[in-house]
């Protein structure tokens, strides 16, 4: 304690006398480090930070239908001639309905006032040309008599079923562009549109879709005659299913290919199928593929028929009740 007090007194006297104090050392000034150059962001990080616009990068036609999973659906808009034929059938049907209602009003209400008859005729006109088409389209989900005959359906631009407001807009504009102008406005607008939309479709956001797809029967080829002897002893059981499907797809599309690409693909597939076929025939690669596909198809057919026969034999046992169990 005494030593510490002495040190404090000594330091105080040294500070109070008039002797000059030594100057404090100047703080060291360090030169500023040069700024590090900006690091170029790697392409991988840039892709993570700013994902590309899928809609802009995808090569999709402007008239294709894109689902929520970014899948382009192959839908076929109805042509102008199909729409015109369907509209003509509908125009005749609704016109006959209107004439029938008018004849009924004249026959049953012939003694009424002329003003009341005019009001009834006007109401029947609205009923036959606006209300009935609207109800028919909503209840049949876009169908009508003419569209049913030609395999057409009215859908939204996104492919969904139309609602009441779509049908109302179409029916209301149809009175002007179809019935009052005998289809002139509808034909002019449809010819200028890629999807053959009329004015009511443009206002409602709908279009006519062709749903009747032709039933194309693909030809079935057998084993080539030059390979009939080889087919009796050949074994194609080890051929993978994926390769078999590729061979079948090539044989379906072969007539549409150029001779050079057709021969190159046939040779490539024949080389891939050779390790799974025994023995190997000599001849054209495409004939070899045709024989392999025919044998594989016949083999799968026989296997499926055998499985069906076994299931038919087991059906009484599998579906029957246990012995002595009451049939309730």
Descriptive account of the structure:
The protein contains 13 helices and 4 strands. With 328 residues, it is mainly α. Among the domains are: 80-210, no CATH class; 225-308, no CATH class. The longest helix is centred in the last third of the chain and has 35 residues, at 285-319. Strand 1 (65-66) and strand 2 (72-73) form a beta hairpin. Strands 1-2 form a two-stranded antiparallel sheet. Strands 3-4 form a two-stranded antiparallel sheet. Helix 11 packs antiparallel against helix 12 (259-273). The protein starts with a helix and ends in a 9-residue tail after the last helix. The model is unreliable at 1-29 and 31-59 (pLDDT under 50). 56% of the residues lie in helices and 4% in strands.
Please outline what is shown here.
This protein is mainly alpha-helical and 328 residues long. Helices cover 56% and strands 4% of the residues. Among the domains are: 80-210, no CATH class; 225-308, no CATH class.
Number of helices: 13
Which stretches are poorly predicted, pLDDT < 50 over at least 5 residues? 1-29, 31-59
Characterize the overall form: elongated
Q: Report the end-to-end length measured between terminal Cα atoms.
A: 111 Å
Give the tally of β-strands: 4
- Average pLDDT works out at 79
Coarse structural class: mainly alpha
Helix content: 55-70%
Q: Rounded to an integer, what's the Rg over CA atoms?
A: 42 Å
Largest sheet: 2 strands, antiparallel
Looking across the biggest beta sheet, what order are the strands in?
A: 1-2
Give the percentage of residues in beta strands.
under 5%
Give helix and strand order, one letter per element, not per position: HHHEEHHHEHHHEHHHH
């Amino acid at each position: 304690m005494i030593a510490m007090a002495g040190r404090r007194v000594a330091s105080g006297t040294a500070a109070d006398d008039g002797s000059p104090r030594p100057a404090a050392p100047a703080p060291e000034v360090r030169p500023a480090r040069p700024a590090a150059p900006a690091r170029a962001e790697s392409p991988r990080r840039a892709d993570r930070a700013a994902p590309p616009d899928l809609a802009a990068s995808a090569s999709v036609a402007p008239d294709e239908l894109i689902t929520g999973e970014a899948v382009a659906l192959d839908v076929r808009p109805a042509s102008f001639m199909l729409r015109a034929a369907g509209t003509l059938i509908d125009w005749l049907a609704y016109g006959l309905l209107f004439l029938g209602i008018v004849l009924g009003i004249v026959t049953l209400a012939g003694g009424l006032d002329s003003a009341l008859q005019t009001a009834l005729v006007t109401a029947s006109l609205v009923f036959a040309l606006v209300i009935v088409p609207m109800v028919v389209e909503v209840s049949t989900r876009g169908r009508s008599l003419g569209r049913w005959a030609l395999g057409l359906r009215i859908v939204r631009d996104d492919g969904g079923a139309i609602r009441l407001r779509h049908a109302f807009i179409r029916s209301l504009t149809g009175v002007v562009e179809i019935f009052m102008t005998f289809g002139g406005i509808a034909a002019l607008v449809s010819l200028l549109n890629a999807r053959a939309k009329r004015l009511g479709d443009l206002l409602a956001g709908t279009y006519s879709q062709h749903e009747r797809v032709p039933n194309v029967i693909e030809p079935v080829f057998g084993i080539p005659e030059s390979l009939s002897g080889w087919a009796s002893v050949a074994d194609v059981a080890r051929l993978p299913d994926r390769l078999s499907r590729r061979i079948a797809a090539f044989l379906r599309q072969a007539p549409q290919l150029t001779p050079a690409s057709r021969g190159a693909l046939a040779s490539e597939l024949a080389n891939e199928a050779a390790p799974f076929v025994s023995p190997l025939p000599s001849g054209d690669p495409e004939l070899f593929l045709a024989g392999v596909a025919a044998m594989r198809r016949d083999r799968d057919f026989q296997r499926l028929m055998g499985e069906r026969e076994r299931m038919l034999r087991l059906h009484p046992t599998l579906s029957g009740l246990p012995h002595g169990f009451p049939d309730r």
